[in-house]
Specification:
The relative contact order is 0.11. Helix content is 42%, strand content 17%. The protein has 223 residues and is an alpha+beta fold. The chain has helices at 9-25, 31-38, 42-54, 70-92, 101-108, 114-123, 170-178, 211-216, and strands at residues 58-61, 65-68, 149-150, 159-165, 186-192, 198-202, 205-209, 217-221.
């Protein structure tokens, strides 16, 4: 299988970041938000966005934000598919914990050929989600986004099933693992503190979750 990649790793990283942020905010992404996500300065981000605009991968208006073009969206989905399939492979086949697979997939995704990507998908049975519950784009570029909301938006007495957990901060994933909270678990909000911390009842017991943790958890309607 030959290695085939249309864009440089830096371009792919930007496309994936814009995809993630654009999906979250539902519109154009600011240069500051993009720079903060990637850990680069705003001028550095602006320089790359001009390059992506020249490649017609994004629509970039200085001081107003950036969004993926149709071509950029397709390219970003390809990177996201490789990344999330790698996370699933590392977790299911190699047994890596969900707090470690993201960084490893980041390092491997740029070298993964389309052919090997599809071999991995077939080996795993074409999984729909990665270890964090994020949907894996299909080979033909479709993404099944199930309705969900942040845990912090629930009020006392409301319940939700853990559908997705952000892979942004491995410490949050380790925190949840230590407290026996995983994808698919039902959480019932018992109390919301004045600062936004939430006390939830899980199958593993009663837990106090601070704002960074509740913001990382997305829940679907629970039973």
């Amino acid at each position: 299988m030959t290695r085939a990649r249309s864009f440089s790793p830096a371009v792919e990283d930007y496309l994936k970041a814009i995809y993630r942020l654009q999906s979250e905010v539902g519109g154009p992404v600011s240069t500051n938000a993009l720079g903060g996500w990637l850990g680069v300065t705003a001028p550095s981000a602006s320089g790359m966005l001009k390059k992506l605009d020249d490649l017609r991968l994004v629509v970039y208006v200085p001081y107003r934000g950036v969004r993926l073009s149709e071509a950029g969206w397709r390219a970003a989905l390809g990177v996201v598919r490789r990344h999330r399939l790698l996370e699933a492979f590392l977790a299911e086949t190699l047994g890596l914990s969900w707090d470690k697979v993201h960084d490893e997939a980041e390092a491997l995704e740029h070298a993964l050929s389309p052919g090997l990507c599809e071999v991995i998908a077939a080996r795993l049975g074409d999984p729909r989600t990665d270890p964090h519950g994020d949907p894996i784009p299909t080979r033909d570029g479709r993404v099944a986004e199930a309705p969900s909301t942040t845990l912090g938006s629930l009020r006392p007495g409301q319940r939700g099933r853990v559908a997705r957990v952000s892979d942004r901060d491995p410490a949050v994933l380790r925190f949840l693992t230590a407290r026996g909270i995983a994808l698919g678990d039902i959480l019932e909000v018992r109390e919301v503190g004045p600062g936004g911390a939430v006390t939830v009842q899980a199958r593993s017991g009663l837990h106090l979750l601070d704002v960074p943790v509740t913001a990382a958890i997305r829940v679907a309607p629970g039973q």
